[in-house]
Structure formats: C-alpha cells, structure tokens
Known about the structure:
By secondary structure, this protein is an alpha/beta fold. The protein has a single domain (13-224), classed as Decaprenyl diphosphate synthase-like (Undecaprenyl pyrophosphate synthetase, 3-Layer(aba) Sandwich). Helix content is 38%, strand content 13%. It contains 8 helices and 6 strands. Strands 3-4-2-1-5-6 form a 6-stranded parallel β-sheet, sandwiched between helices. α2 packs parallel to α3 (72-88), α2 (32-53) packs parallel to α8 and α3 (72-88) packs parallel to α5. The longest helix is centred in the N-terminal third of the chain and has 22 residues, at 32-53. The chain is globular.
Amino acid sequence: MSAEASPGGLPRHIAIIMDGNGRWAQSRGLPRIAGHRRGAEAVRRTLTAATEIGVPYLTLFGFSSENWKRPLDEIDDLMGLLRHYLRGEIAELHRNGVRLRVIGEIERLSPDIMTLIDNAEALTRDNRAINLTIALSYGGRAEIAAAARAIAAKVRAGALPLDAIDEELIASHLLTVDLPDPDLLIRTSGEQRISNFLLWQCAYAELDRRAQSPAHRLRAAAMAGDPRQAAALRPAAVPVHDDRNVPRQPAGRGLGAHQT
C-alpha cells in the first residue's frame, strides 16, 4: 500500500533502523547490553516525538533474523530486555493511545515472549494516537519468500490464475498488508545499508542516514517547518487502519532497536 503525506506535509509512515547501540557501548568501554538499554530509551523518546508531531505510523527494526547468529549471552540479554519492555511499558503505551503490533518470525521466540506480545497487541488494538509496529526476528527477504510461497500454493490449488499476480497481490501477502508503505527511512548509525528491512515496502522511501537521534530529527523537522516533513507541533489522534477482518499471514508477525 503506498503512503501519502499527512496533513501539513508530514510523512505518513516513518521506518527507523535503530542500530549502532552495541558499537556505541563498546566505544565507551561498556558492555554491549548497556548500549541496547540506551537503544530502548531512544525508542521511548522517538515514539513520544512522533506522537507529538502527528506521525500516524512508525515502524522500528528491533531484532533481525540475522541477529540470531550473535553470541548466545548477548541474545539472552536482548530477550531479557524485551521481556522487561513488554511487562513494564505496555500499560503506559496503552494509556498514551499507542497501538502496538509486532511483525516477523515470532514463532522463533520463547513461548512466554510470544504470549506477552499477543497480550500487548490485544490490549492496544483499538488505540488511535499512533500505530507502532516493531519488526522482531524479521527479514525482508524471508517475508517476500513467504509471500511467494503462499501465492504459489494458491496457483497450484487452482484458486488463483497466474496472470492475476501483480504488485498489489504480492503486497497483500506481506506482513505489512494493513500498513501504508514508508515514505521516510531513517538509519541512526549513519550506515548506507537497508539491512534486509522492509525491502519491498521501502522501494520509494526517502533515506535519511544522518547519525543523530531520530527523536531529535522528528522534532527539528517540525520546528523548522520543512514542507515535506513538518507540521506544527501538536498532539494528534489519527484513524487506525482496521485490520480485524484481515487474516494474519502464516510467516509470523514479528521490539526494541535493531541491534548492531
């Protein structure tokens, strides 16, 4: 689904690769988990800024499918941080009107985390201040491959003619079927890679790779009156895309900061 600018020229959907946390900690002689905790704090600030300036959709790259190759002790620390977030912060998100959704191969997570995610999504389902999506255990290539398999199965079963396959059909089989495509992609570390994040969806997104806090950039754009990205600072309640009748894709669904 293509994105359109919100009133005032603000991006309708901002996607952020919140990486560099581990390297930030190591450069200061701290354990990598200290950087990941700092990344979680950055998530909170970014969400607050996005809500204040009226961005309807915010998607954060939390934990990639490739991150499972990291040392086990680091993965354990990250999963502990995820549990802490889901247990301790969801109530506040709910009070602030945030709708939370998680996309990715959630079935790779431990059962208790899967339950926490399901509970958080159910609790915040009808909230309307902002749509927060976190990509967890997520890979863009795997998402596209899963969509291709689902479409191929329908063709083989005779339920779908081959000439019906087009871009719109493929997009309807992605994990982001109920979200507009991002029109702004931010990478906090300054790296010039998209790292397998929303490969299909970010085809036309503008790339911002300045190594600066995304929360600072969101507020600065609004204060500066940038006609492409800014609107007057204001709390905003926006319509939530109602996907209660949209079936989930079997590839999984998919928190935190993309940990690199």
